[in-house]
Amino acid sequence: MTIAMTITEKILASHAGKDSVSPGELIDVSVDLALANDITAPLAFRVFEELGPKDVFDPERIALVPDHFVPNKDIASAQQAKIMSEFASKHNIKHYFELGDSGIEHVILPEKGLVIPGDLVIGADSHTCTYGALGAFSAGVGSTDLGVILGTGRIWLKVPATIKLIYKGNLKPWVGGKDLILFTLGLIGVEGAVYETMEFAGEVIQGLSMDQRLTMANMAVEGGAKNGIFEPDDITRAYVEQRSERKGHYWASDPDAQYARVVEIDVDQIGPQVAAPHSPDNVFPVSEIGSVRLDQVVIGSCTNGRIEDLRVAAGILKGRSVARGTRLIVIPGSPRIYKEAIQEGIITTLLNAKAVISPPTCGPCLGGHMGVLADGEKAISTTNRNFIGRMGHPGSEVYLASPAVAAASAVLGKIASPDDI
Amino acid sequence: MKSKGKIWKFGDHVDTDLIIPARFLNVSDKNELAKNCFVDVKPDFARTVQPGDIIIAGINFGCGSSREHAPLAIKAAGISVIIAKSFARIFYRNAFNIGLPILESTEAADAFSEGDDVSVDLSSGEIADPDGARRFFAKPIPEFMREIIDAGGLVDYIRKKMAA
After folding, report:
1. What are the beta bridge partners of residue A69?
2. B17/A142 Cβ within 8 A
3. What is the average pLDDT score of chain A?
4. What's the distance, CA B54 to chain centroid?
């Protein structure tokens, strides 16, 4: 008799060479793709070199993406980026992306077809969980774990228990993946899924586009989760088949799979959501947030820097202008998205509205560059974290929301719903 | 192995941006990182922390980014052990991997205050006052994690396995 498993358990078992796995079990798995960025890679290389193998496990299954502090913001960052490009060249890393071809790691890896359903991806970046949107298992680790993977292609993992989140009903206008994940974080808290899997399911999820799913999976780590995952379907297939020649494994959870708990969420009552400072689970409907004047609005990041996000923002900003006293920074997540946005007239619309367009970078999301906040400044951002000092001065404040809410807020210079303009 | 030191007390959900803000991540030297450890919440920490001092915190310590710079900064600053009610997943792995001891004890986290002198026995998990008036035992470290610690961190653990 076969044991009923969740999609996460099936992917883990297939990479551990086992018929089945269960929560709590420690397993040693093979990694399909290992990822690091300009902040985490230099430390990982040091570990790889200490470990001693001459060659990386597979130069075609490693992705090195300079994205956090590029284009290099200062000399120290330039040194880090240089270490990365030298390592890539020495080890013939196939998926090293230089500026012009590079973008935000979690935007470009799916876009370039480097992750497909059933893959096991480990990245030295906490938002590696984004690829769960494609029906892959993906989790973030630190640089030491990644350094070991560079040498061995393997990692030990504890099989997580799964929380099944079932979304039912009909989405209200202006409500999308970002609102659903913020609402969910408000419900379960930032420790609500620690060491666990968040499995997103239900009729609402099945209707979401790839971009919306990527937004939701991206923030699973904000609930403490090891990974977030969606069952791959025809929407996934259409996305992946345009991008990869590889054949994926379209796993699905067994109907009688065991869950740590099942949470049903009725989306009919969910309006646009905002996470107030200083935690992604400090979530309110935008209508209850009160009057918050804004110095800055950021639309971009591995959470919401994709073409659909820019389309929504441009739709709201068309024929309007950013409020005096407020800055709007828009960051397309990749060169391809940037180009599509130019071709669709989105960039012109945004420039006419007095937005500034940044090259693809993580930049302001982590207070790196391209929009750091001063003491006392307030921002609304489509990014994923609003911890103290996250986007700059520890005395600044960050609110998190969807591109629709961010765009409407930019027009009014205060936090607002698209219905308010 | 025993640690002895003064307590630095923190609350719940201490995130990695608080431990080491991203603006300082353009270097990876641990001593440079240590200079800015907790700079936004306890600006005096890096200057006044003594080797052996102990961090006590609430739930979900180390949440947020995967930056290993966070446990590296804490370790290089001189902290000998972190005791928290619970740890975020990636921080938990990172701490073991770089050889920074961490223990889970809700009772100890509630009992001790900033500045208290405490000794910690890492092998038994005992956390106590100098006079032993308050004594707690942390949650046992899983066997597999213990093997990583005994090997001296993940790199040495893997090296041993590769040699075997």
Report:
1. none
2. no
3. 97
4. 8
Instruction: Tell me the CA end-to-end span of chain A in Å, nearest whole number.
Output: 59
Return the closest-CA partner of residue A127 out of A29, A228, A41, A34: A228
Binary contact (B158, A279; C-beta < 8 A): no
| Interface contact A279-B13, CB threshold 8 A | yes
Question: What are the tens digits of pLDDT across the range A4-28?
Answer: 999 999 999 999 999 999 999 999 9
Cβ distance of B155 and A51 shorter than 8 Å: yes
pLDDT digits 0-9 by tens, A100-140: 999 999 999 999 999 999 999 999 999 999 999 999 999 99
With a CB-CB cutoff of 8 Å, which residues 46-65 of chain B face chain A? 59-60, 63-65
Is A390's CB within 8 Å of B65's CB? no
Closest residue in chain B to residue A226, using alpha carbons only = B89
Of A348, A401, A337, nearest in space to A104 by CA: A337
- Give the minimum alpha-carbon distance from B70 to chain A in angstroms, rounded to a whole number: 10
Q: Which ranges constitute the DSSP H helices of chain B?
A: 16-19, 30-34, 45-48, 69-77, 89-98, 106-111, 143-151, 154-163
pTM (2 d.p.)? 0.97
ipTM above 0.90, yes or no: yes
- B17 CB neighbours in chain A (<8 A) are 366-367, 385, 387-390
Measured CA to CA, the distance from residue A405 to residue A371 in angstroms comes to 19
Question: Is some CB atom of chain A closer than 8 A to the CB atom of B36?
Answer: no
| The pLDDT of residue A1 | 55
Distance CA A407, CA A290 (A): 17
Question: 3-state DSSP call for residue B52?
Answer: coil
